[in-house]
Recover the amino acids of this structure.
């Protein structure tokens, strides 16, 4: 088993959800230092904590618990303490040769549910399944982290005069939740970046999953995403007594959920609405005085996002009026859509054509969803740089975000070779 695969399995075993990736961050920093990286930023020095807001819990109690767990699971105590309980790592590698500033994003967080012990599960049969309850790498971020470390090794341990300028390796927390990419951007690490690259395993092209050996050299169908927590405020009453005095917040939330899912798609691009959670009520014989729901809406273009925003709030307001109650909401902001720059897509295509493992090359692939790498892409592009988001093909056991997800680890080495070649020969 090669070192990159060993990295992947280690991070899979010690999976951590967004803003809790303290062991992950400490180990990344330890590995980078062992490779010879000198300029390593961890924790507060990697992310802007002021960017992070509710509902993220970065209390001292939570941070201390994460640090204690990290140490108990084999992370270096000194490096763990250096994080102060905040995740995130940025390594800056100066080649010593004048040239551009390149940045690559590798997300490090996992998803918040248990891993599935299914028949034939490689993680269980080969003993690298997650040891942390409610934590599973079901979206390939363990592989992304391993690719980033493999690239660091290639750059540092095998210096090449063809590599110019400096390279920033960004190991980003909290892609699956809020504020991860924004916290890196707000720290200023991408202000001077000329070229930005992000990779993701198990995407699609021509609306079909990319198998092992395939690559999508750029993604353009990002959807913006906005998430809201909405609470309907009604009035409790006995359903058989003075029922007319009650205002049923649970019925309002259910009615709103149905109406939200009935919003018509927009003709100009992809449109998505989802109510993912509803929570409310006291007991069977009391009209529910409060009920909350968590929803998101996604659009391919700003016009669609604006359309969805107007329809969502029309429905919330109309539902509140219909049921004679009020509502409040918390808005977690928007992750924007993004597009890959064609010049970098072509650079990736040319590099992939030189690597035998990539036997099916698509210029453009499908994401059809969101990734907060788009925050970084937009920032770099708005400052005059170029950006690309690459889809790496890999055979998978289950779809992403399924607790039984696993991927063909043979994709890891070629992914490192691809990124190294793009940096050295095409940027």
């Amino acid at each position: 088993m090669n070192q990159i695969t060993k990295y992947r399995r280690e991070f899979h075993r010690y999976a951590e959800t967004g803003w809790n990736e303290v062991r992950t961050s400490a180990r990344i920093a330890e590995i980078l230092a062992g490779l010879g990286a000198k300029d390593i930023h961890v924790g507060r020095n990697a992310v802007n904590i002021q960017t992070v807001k509710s509902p993220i819990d970065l209390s001292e109690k939570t941070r201390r618990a994460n640090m204690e767990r990290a140490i108990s699971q084999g992370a270096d105590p000194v490096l763990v303490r250096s994080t102060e309980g905040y995740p995130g790592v940025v390594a800056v590698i100066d080649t010593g040769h004048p040239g551009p500033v390149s940045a690559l994003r590798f997300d490090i967080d996992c998803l918040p549910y248990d891993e599935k012990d299914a028949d034939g599960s490689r993680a269980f049969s080969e003993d690298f399944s997650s040891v942390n309850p409610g934590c599973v790498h079901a979206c390939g971020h363990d592989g992304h982290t391993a690719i980033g470390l493999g690239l660091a090794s290639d750059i540092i341990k095998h210096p090449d005069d063809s590599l110019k300028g400096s390279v920033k390796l960004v190991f980003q927390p909290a892609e699956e939740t809020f504020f991860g990419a924004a916290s890196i951007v707000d720290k200023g690490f991408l202000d001077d970046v000329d070229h930005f690259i992000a990779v993701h395993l198990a995407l699609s092209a021509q609306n079909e999953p990319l198998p092992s050996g395939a690559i999508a050299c750029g993604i353009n169908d990002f959807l913006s995403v906005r998430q809201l927590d909405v609470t309907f405020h009604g009035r409790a009453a006995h359903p058989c007594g003075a029922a007319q005095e009650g205002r049923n917040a649970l019925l309002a939330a259910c009615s709103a959920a149905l109406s939200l899912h009935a919003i018509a798609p927009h003709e100009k691009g992809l449109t998505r609405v989802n109510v993912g959670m509803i929570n409310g009520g006291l007991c069977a014989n009391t009209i529910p005085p409060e009920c909350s729901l968590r929803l998101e809406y996604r659009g391919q273009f700003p016009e669609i996002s604006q359309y969805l925003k107007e329809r969502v709030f029309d429905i919330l307001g109309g539902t509140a009026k219909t049921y004679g109650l009020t509502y409040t909401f918390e808005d977690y902001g928007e992750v924007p859509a993004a597009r890959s720059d064609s010049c970098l897509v072509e650079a990736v295509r040319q590099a992939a054509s030189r690597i035998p493992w990539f036997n099916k090359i698509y210029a453009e692939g499908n994401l059809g969803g969101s990734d907060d790498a788009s925050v970084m892409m937009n920032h770099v592009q708005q400052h005059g740089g170029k950006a690309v988001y690459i889809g790496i093909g890999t055979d998978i056991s289950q779809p992403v975000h399924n607790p039984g997800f696993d991927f063909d680890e043979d994709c890891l080495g070629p992914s490192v070779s691809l990124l190294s070649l793009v940096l050295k020969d095409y940027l």
